[in-house]
Amino acid sequence: MSDNLKVPTMASYLAEGKQPEVLFWVGCAGSFDDRAKKITKAFVKILNNINVDFAVLGTEEGCTGDPAKRAGNEFLFQMQALTNIEVLNAYEVKKIVTACPHCFNTLKNEYPSLGGNYEVIHHTQFLKQLLNEGRLKVEGGKFKGKRITYHDPCYLGRANGEYEAPRDLLRKLEVELVEMKSCKSKGLCCGAGGAQMFKDAEKGDKEVNIHRTEQAVDVKPEVIAAGCPFCNTMMTDGVKNKEKQDEIEVLDVVEMIANAEDL
Amino acid sequence: MLDYLPQILFALILLGAILFFVKNVSSLKRNINLGKDVNRTDQKDKRFKKMMRVALGQSKMVNRPIAGILHIIVYVGFVIINIEVLEIIIDGVLGTHRIFGFLGPVYDFLIGSFEILAFLVLVSVIIFWIRRNMMNIKRFLSKELKGWPKNDANYILYFEVVLMVLFLTMNAADYQLQLMGASHYTSEAGIMGSFPISQFLLPLFDGMNIGTLILIERTAWWLHIVGILIFLNYLYYSKHLHILLAFPNVYFSNLDNLGKFKNLEAVTNEVKLMMDPNADPFAEPEADEADDVPEKFGASDVQDLNWFQLLSAYTCTECGRCTSECPANQTGKKLSPRKIMMDTRDRLEEVGKQLHKDVEITSDNQLLDNYISREELWACTTCNACVDACPIGIDPLSIIMDMRQYLVMEQSAAPPELNNAMTNIENNSAPWPYNQQDRLNWAEE
User: B265-435 — its CATH code?
Assistant: First the structure.
């Protein structure tokens, strides 16, 4: 089933001698993970809907190297980074938007000293910009008045100080925003960062994602809003573990905007 | 000659204390300098402002309001009451009494403020003791605090109680002596100092003669100043070094986004060489190039860390705010960021002692495995909660990352599932086994 998305590639833009306004860095999760693909598509639908001129690297994109770096494999990280930088620089990319805070952090903070200098923003920041410029209209829609809690991704929040853009978008949806016990700079990790997503957890009393989900369940939300495909997976698993999947949805902020618009 | 005996004795004690302190500071510097170089002297303006705000201004302490406010009372008390120590030292050396007494009302105000602060410090320290020993606060019950660290923390509190009680006793006896018109204690200008707190101790001296009171006053005076000098020299053996090192530690702390991990330059050179189609793989390394390659990647011992990380190990006062914010620790894993810092300091002390005595390093001890286990290192989610929680800019995460680099790049000792993910990244540029050519398939699904 195709949603008739328009997803131009940088290669096709180059063939026409054009530069898009922004490069959409999809990321591995956004490209391959079934749940995260929905986030990718929701974002593209919005971009298509308001005619944002963007392109993707497609098959020329590769892992930013974030999990390798946080695992301690600096060699593999830099191989990935330098390969990606070669591609990005060849296309003379200036501005990158991504729906993954891990890609966001790595591209923004760790690529410059390796020769990759771009303006890198998270998709919630980009949507906020579009909103401010009047290009995107966000109204309550189906989430109006619903009780929502927002889970701060570590690599967007604490690591890069962005707490407000996603919350501003949620406020635009006229939701009832409730904060968990640990939020913003004190936000509790979902348990996936630092390459934990790709390994078993060490022995303990419980999994980190269960601990975080308990904090979320405590504030009785109808939706847990996330801004990271990995947090999304962890929180979704946590909600299932608590057998709350019929009461609590886990959605990316961009999915909520797309749903509100009924895209 | 006998008249000068107290002064000579005082000068000797003071000199001894200063010399011993200088010796300890030089050990401290020597140990910190075992670390690798790192550039933390850029952006001086920004660093200075951060130090003023975070160290002097205690801005992050109040993130936990109860402990924060109590800490500020003790901190302000400590700094301000030390003005009085200046007078005590001058009096001690010159054989004078209350040499700043000529300041009149200003002096009264100062002594009065010291007394009120001393009382507030006393109350705060007692609350600290109750919190630490009776209230079952989780961060004070961790395994790494068993034994010496717990005793150390309590000794500091006892020390402060004793010092404050001595200070107030000294003032009370002094006040009583002034009221009784004892020579050497009185001034023509009237009562020197004001005693808003110690005046309440006067009933204790009812019926005592001048001789007894002088004995009490002198004993309290001597024990107070000798206590301070002992305390100064206790610092090096204690977690309490933060009262000095918090300032440089904040000054030299990381100014970048917390998410920005440093890129290893030596790796960049090698990777660039690997990716260069024109590079001759069999070429001899150039002489200066060969020097650039570090002996090893990452850290397995304290000498592999940088001096800022080692400074932080001495600065850490083991408050445990980092550990209480750590998601791994909260869910019962072995990792505790505070323990990472404590282990680093303990190991650094061990290495320092070996170097100092010029003894051959006989044990195979190192920071990895002997102090910090792999299980701890792999439990970290790199979420930066510990770094954000530290009130004085310590970065336990950077040590964890350096040690992971050693495990992966020197020992290929990553957990097997992680090796699978890394192999996937190498082969198909994603942590999962999907073909890179399928990366855009989602657009068609």
Answer: 1.10.1060
